[in-house]
Design brief:
Number of domains of chain A: 5
Structural class of chain A: mainly alpha
Mean pLDDT of chain B: 85
Oligomer: heterodimer
Helix content of chain A: 40-55%
CATH topology of the largest domain in chain A: Cytochrome Bc1 Complex, Chain D, domain 2
CATH architecture of the largest domain in chain A: Orthogonal Bundle
Shape of chain B: extended
Distance between the termini of chain B: 87 Å
Strand content of chain A: under 5%
Largest interface: A-B, 68 and 55 residues
Helix content of chain B: 40-55%
Distance between the termini of chain A: 83 Å
Low-confidence stretches of chain B: none
Number of helices of chain B: 8
Low-confidence stretches of chain A: 1-32
Largest sheet of chain A: none
Number of helices of chain A: 22
CATH class of the largest domain in chain A: Mainly Alpha
Shape of chain A: flat
Chain lengths: 485, 192
């Protein structure tokens, strides 16, 4: 039951007393921090969207010192249902309402009095954080000794256990090699970069007090000591310099090529010199099959040169089109808003992301880490360097405006089922044959689309019934100079 | 007999290997390029990196004290006073023809629907599904019914409260058309 009781060095009475004291102290300690934690969690969940403590006005007023300015009973009433108070003509409530552009505060009738009191307590006891000085410098390799780095590495890879619990090693979620599968968690290198960056994340804080739901769920059992955090930081700073190992796939095609080369050689050798197999059909079959496979591989590989079909690189932010365009039903043009007017469909700037992520601070899959990247980028003014996937050679002209606006082609026609992709991928090969095929088969909407009103002859032919539909080919979609000039 | 078995075994091996041929490249690998003549643009493309610039961005802002063609600077700030002033001074230059209202509806469905909802009452999918914590403003409240087109135009342009500015995403004409749609269709539907 009690760890001290099993210690035989003490006399019985002393042991009992010590045990009792420990228990009492323990209960008292956890009791107060639990209430404080509950208030904090409730505050973060319900209030941070509009309020800050010690950070100035957001949508609602600054809350630092609000418990001195107003009485607690009044606060309780106001938080619960501010509208009622305003309608009742409470002078302070009306004043607050008018000071804040007449935006009513949301009602929190779903919270109990106790819960609201714990929030008020949290605001009351709130103090500016004593910044723990984070002494890690990314560019200073001498900052850590070799043993510290090694110790951190072992902790990270789970070779030595953590002192206060936490069973899974860091590496099981935070990859140290690039991976082909989807992993919502930040990789070890991303962690390292976020922590080492100037004004970046504070490692002690994010490990000690997980803030997002995802972090709380996954990191709840980890209670790392400062020393352990320091060791892991040492390893991460080293890892940031060495970098991650690239993920390699087994070269199946090459193996197939070599296998058939060997088989063909054997067949030839047997056919001419050794003559072990009587039936020459066997040799013939082997050689023909081998030639077929070699030819096939050569053609497929040659065709894929300069085309990046299936390319799905890791982007600087784990942005999921499935979450945004699929689950959240956001229109493609909300973010790629130039598609109707410009050659380029437009990459959303940080501001576009912030339209929603000013309020949505925590993702369902990735917690706060990925969304924080936008906020850091917006703060520093540095654009996020997305990696371009769909790319046509310079000698081809392609305009999104012509296809999306004039032709009213759906985005999915060329980009595939983007709304189901967690990792954006190039679905089509974007080859010339692919373009031409589409131009041959796509029918132009001549009836309702003003853009094509100048094609008088075709309109006449349509009317007289000479042709029943107009394809892109008929309006010059196969002319060389349409795309190459 | 043994040879037949050997041949079947080889055929099976071939089949298995053929199944696995599609994964020689990792998804991070672009593959190879052959004679990339006139493939890479010498001029900087949109969003490209320009090493000559201090911030290495190819996209530049207009030079100081100049404006781009067709761009009219928007003078009203994102404050309650600015909003009132814009509502009082600006006049919708677009006529309320059915075509313009239809265009306004299309644009509304792209940019506004997610938050303000199909009926314009603030019950957009992002809010009702719990993804967005703050209830978006209702466009059919009494306050909004009393305001002119310019008020809507102003809020789309510079934003209000938690709503961000959408001026860089929606063209001025389309903003006016959205205002037309909200005034002439969305609000009328609720009044009747």
């Amino acid at each position: 039951m009690n760890p001290t009781a099993s210690n035989s060095g003490f006399r019985p009475a002393g042991v009992l007393l010590a045990a009792l004291l420990t228990i009492v102290f323990f209960i008292a300690d956890t009791g107060s921090t639990n209430a404080q934690n509950e208030g904090k969690q409730l505050f973060e969940k319900n209030c941070t969207v509009c309020h800050k403590i010690g950070g100035g006005k957001l949508v609602g007023p600054e809350l630092m010192g609000v418990t001195q300015r107003r009485e607690k009973d009044w606060l309780l009433k106001f938080i619960k249902n501010s509208k009622e108070l305003i309608d009742a003509g409470d002078p302070i409530a009306v004043k607050v309402y008018e000071e804040n552009n007449k935006i009513p505060m949301l009602t929190f009738t779903q919270l109990s009095d106790n819960e609201i009191n714990s929030i008020i307590d949290y605001i009351d006891k709130w103090e500016p954080e004593k910044e723990k000085v984070f002494t890690v410098d990314v560019n200073k390799k001498d900052g850590f000794s070799h043993t510290e780095i090694l110790r951190g590495e072992r902790l990270f890879f789970g070779l030595i256990p953590f002192e206060k619990g936490g069973t899974t090693a860091c590496v099981s979620c935070h990859n140290t090699i690039t991976n082909d599968t989807l992993n919502w968690n930040p990789s070890a290198r991303e962690l390292a970069m976020a922590f080492m960056e100037k004004d970046g994340m504070n490692m002690y804080k994010s490990m000690g007090e997980p803030t997002s739901d995802v972090m709380r769920k996954t990191h709840g059992e980890y209670k790392l000591t400062d020393q352990e955090v320091f060791y892991i930081a040492a390893f991460l700073s080293e890892f940031n310099q060495t970098g991650e190992k690239p993920h390699k796939t087994f070269p199946n095609k090459l193996m197939l090529f070599i296998l058939f080369a060997v088989l063909m050689t054997l067949a030839l050798v047997d056919l001419i010199f050794t003559k072990l197999i009587k039936y020459k059909v066997v040799h013939l079959v082997v050689i023909l099959a081998g030639l077929g496979v070699h030819f096939n591989l050569a053609v497929v590989e040659a065709q894929s040169l300069s085309r990046t079909q299936g390319y799905a690189p890791d982007q600087p932010i784990k942005f999921s089109h499935k979450v945004h365009a699929g689950d959240n039903k956001t229109d493609c043009r909300y973010c790629h808003s130039f598609a109707d007017f410009s050659k380029s469909a437009g990459m959303p700037s940080n501001n576009v992301c912030l339209n929603c992520h000013k309020v949505v601070l925590s993702g369902r899959n990735s917690g706060k880490f990925e969304i924080n990247k936008i906020h850091r980028a917006a703060k520093s003014g540095k654009p996020v360097e997305w990696i371009r996937i769909h790319n046509l050679p310079e000698h081809v002209f392609f305009s999104h405006a012509q296809h999306a606006n004039a032709g009213k082609i759906a985005c999915e026609t060329c980009h595939g089922a983007v709304a189901e992709m967690n990792i954006m991928k190039q679905v089509e090969d974007l080859s010339m044959g692919w373009c031409i095929n589409c131009h041959r088969s796509t029918k132009v909407n001549f009836k309702d689309n003003q853009y094509y009103s100048t094609y008088l002859k075709l309109h006449e032919e349509l009317k007289s019934g000479k042709i029943d539909s107009v394809t892109v080919e008929k309006i010059g979609g196969l002319d060389c100079m349409k795309c190459h000039y | 007999m043994i040879r037949k078995k050997l041949i079947t075994a080889l055929a099976a091996l071939f089949g298995i290997l053929l199944l696995g041929t599609s994964c020689d490249r990792t998804r991070n690998d672009k593959g190879y390029e052959y004679f990339p003549d006139m493939v890479h643009s010498l001029a900087y493309e949109t969003y490209a990196v320009n090493p000559a610039m201090a911030d290495s961005q190819a996209m530049r802002l207009p030079a100081e004290n100049t404006i781009s063609r067709e761009i009219i600077p928007y003078a009203y700030p994102n404050t309650p006073e600015g909003r009132l002033q814009a509502a009082a001074e600006l006049i919708n230059p677009i006529e309320a023809t059915p075509e313009n209202i239809k265009r306004g509806k299309e644009q509304f469905n792209i940019f506004c629907l997610g938050c303000h909802g199909e009926l314009g009452n603030g019950d957009g999918y992002l809010f009702t599904s719990g993804r967005f914590a703050i209830k978006p403003a209702s466009l059919i409240s009494e306050k909004m019914l009393a305001m002119p087109d310019a008020d809507i135009y102003h809020v789309i342009s510079v934003g209000f409260n938690t709503m961000g500015a959408h001026a860089h995403m929606i063209r001025p004409d389309d903003r006016w058309k959205i205002a037309l749609f909200v005034k002439n269709e969305l609000q009328k539907n609720t009044v009747n």
